[in-house]
């Protein structure tokens, strides 16, 4: 598996995500926001957490218009995989690669904690390493993680089994407790929690390992 991790001014989880891919056995390329193309042979693009462009305007809005996001869109439209975490999820909604939007937390405060997530579907390359309805522990660190979409979009997400994760105890006001969603072809995942921060027991837990291993297994058999 060849993973490309995008880097924007203000990214602060790019190295964490690169290490997560590397630990799963992937080759990793770091790609700067001003680049207009991805390296040849990339299987999956990682859009990391942080504060791209200082979160000016809306979170992820400026990053979504950077040169590299044009290449990201082309990659996804061709059937490539993408994983957006935290600010990366915000970027994926701003590029319209995923529906909905991330708003200010309901409590109007930045939240840094470890939360329980329920695996809403195991039917994706990202979640196939888990059992449906399993509860895992994953860190969160966000100020604008309150997922919102209109009723029609929510009905479509639920009807097409595209809600990947939900919060066991909603920390930010996200509609229907949504913590992560999938694209129509199930090859793009956006999620607010940080699975790349749940890889080593010394960091608290290893519940994120299964996601990256599942991705590697999928790419190996593709």
User: Under the CATH scheme, which architecture would be assigned?
Assistant: 3-Layer(aba) Sandwich
Largest sheet: 9 strands, mixed
Order of strands, main sheet, comes to: 2-1-3-4-11-10-9-6-7
Structural category? alpha/beta
Pathway: Purine metabolism; IMP biosynthesis via de novo pathway; 5-amino-1-(5-phospho-D-ribosyl)imidazole from N(2)-formyl-N(1)-(5-phospho-D-ribosyl)glycinamide: step 1/2
Active site: 86, 194, 196
Keywords: ATP-binding, Cytoplasm, Glutamine amidotransferase, Hydrolase, Ligase, Nucleotide-binding, Purine biosynthesis
Subcellular location: Cytoplasm
Structure description:
The strands form two sheets. A nine-stranded mixed β-sheet has the order 2-1-3-4-11-10-9-6-7, sandwiched between helices. The chain has five helices and eleven strands; from the N terminus they run βαββαβαββββαβββα. With 222 residues, it is α/β, with parallel strands linked by helices. Helices cover 23% and strands 26% of the residues. It has a single domain, classed as Class I glutamine amidotransferase (GATase) domain (Rossmann fold). It is globular, with a radius of gyration of 16 Å. This is Phosphoribosylformylglycinamidine synthase subunit PurQ.
């Amino acid at each position: 598996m060849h993973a490309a991790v995008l880097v924007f001014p203000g990214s602060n989880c790019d190295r964490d995500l690169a290490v997560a891919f590397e630990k799963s056995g992937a080759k990793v390329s770091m790609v700067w926001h001003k680049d207009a193309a991805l390296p040849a042979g990339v299987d999956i693009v990682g859009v990391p957490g942080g504060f791209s462009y200082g979160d000016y305007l809306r979170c992820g809005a400026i990053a979504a218009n950077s040169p590299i996001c044009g290449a990201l869109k082309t990659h996804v439209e061709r059937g490539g995989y993408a994983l957006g975490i935290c600010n990366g999820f915000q970027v994926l909604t701003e590029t319209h690669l995923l529906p909905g939007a991330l708003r200010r937390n309901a409590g109007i405060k930045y939240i840094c904690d470890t939360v329980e997530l329920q695996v809403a579907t195991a039917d994706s390359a990202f979640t196939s390493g888990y059992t449906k309805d399993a509860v895992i522990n994953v860190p969160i660190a966000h100020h604008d993680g309150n997922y919102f979409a209109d009723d029609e979009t929510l009905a479509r997400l639920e009807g097409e089994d595209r809600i990947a994760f939900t919060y066991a105890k909603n920390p930010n006001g996200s509609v229907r407790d949504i913590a992560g969603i999938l694209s129509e072809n199930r090859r793009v995942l956006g999620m607010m929690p940080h699975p790349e921060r749940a890889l080593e027991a010394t960091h608290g837990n290893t519940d994120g390992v299964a996601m990256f291993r599942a991705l590697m297994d999928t790419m190996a058999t593709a």
